[in-house]
Amino acid sequence: MLDEPGEGAPQSAQTLTIEDVGVGQRLDNFLLRQLKGVPRTRIYRALRKGEVRVNKGRVRADYRLVAGDKVRIPPLRVPSTGQPAHASMRLRESLARAVIYQDQQLLAINKPSGLAVHGGSGISIGLIEALRQVYPGIRYLELVHRLDRDTSGLVLVAKCTTVLRELHRQLRDKQVEKRYLALVAGKWPAAVKAVQAPLEKNILQSGERMVRVSRGGKAALTEFRVLERLPGATLLEARPVTGRTHQIRVHARHVGHPLLGDTRYSDTKAQQLSRRLGLKRLFLHAQALRFALHDSGELKLFAPLDSALDAILDRLR
């Protein structure tokens, strides 16, 4: 039976059997939930070194848990951090205003840029921790998927395990349609309507994730559509058919047109244009989601751009 999420790391190795809660979750997300207070970098190091085992074997961080899995969790030291972080009143009010959709099963938030989806090393509080404080009466709140800290837009949060498992299945089967707005440097080639290039992820010692196009990587496909041509830039709609880390950003850079405001996969021209425009964040926004749930039917969710990105487009126009 799966234990309730613990406060910090176990003092000795423990083995948890997955029954209901945890089914369909990525292993790294499950561990982050179980090992509250343990830095993300330490958890990922334990995964890389094989300290965490599933059914006595080594597994990757993105392994999806199934019912009956036996997860061995090693004793990991939790640094003394004093009182747990509390969401500020400003953050609580901001998230309350950012609700796009809510019913008894699901919550959809227009996440602001700069807010990580969960806390970890160097991050005192993330979206999911803040939401649990905003909605203390909701017993179960779990992230359905991730969104990069610098990316704004739609994030789904499940209120029950049934919906979490169903949406994870739909994500695996590519039945959830995601559409992003991305502003890239230069004139995007009209002929490039899709980029199919395998991506390889590398986690640095700092815990930072870097991705590159590599023959040995995982298959990745992003569809692009030109929405507007602007002086020195192009506004695109990007639809990631696969869901690889930093996929849109790396595929755009692969074509030679990095996203504006991207400090990780940029080039000199894009950086100069971003500075001239006064763009201080990544111009990537998860604008729309479409999926189906048995009780709610087909849902089409839309999150508007924030005023800062709207101002950048007005400046270019």
Could you explain the architecture of this structure?
The chain is of the alpha+beta class and 317 residues long. It is 24% helix and 27% strand. The chain has 8 helices and 15 strands. Strand 14 (284-293) and strand 15 (297-302) form a beta hairpin. The longest helix has 12 residues, at 161-172. Residues 1-10 have low confidence and may be disordered.
Count of folded domains: 3
Architecture of the largest domain in CATH? Answer: 2-Layer Sandwich
Mean pLDDT: 87
Cα gyration radius (Å): 20 Å
Question: Number of helical segments?
Answer: 8
- The proportion of residues in beta strands is 25-35%
Low-confidence parts lasting 5 or more residues at pLDDT below 50?
Answer: 1-10
Short summary:
By secondary structure, the chain is of the alpha+beta class. It has 8 helices and 15 strands. A hairpin with a 5-residue loop joins strand 10 (199-203) and strand 11.
Secondary structure layout plus pairing:
Blueprint: E1 14-17, H1 27-34, H2 40-48, E2 53-54, E3 70-73, H3 89-97, E4 99-102, E5 106-111, H4 127-134, E6 142-143, E7 152-158, H5 161-172, E8 177-185, E9 194-196, E10 199-203, E11 209-213, E12 221-230, E13 233-240, H6 247-255, H7 268-277, E14 284-293, E15 297-302, H8 307-316
Parallel strand pairs: 7-14
Antiparallel strand pairs: 1-3, 2-3, 4-5, 5-7, 6-7, 8-13, 8-14, 9-12, 10-11, 12-13, 14-15
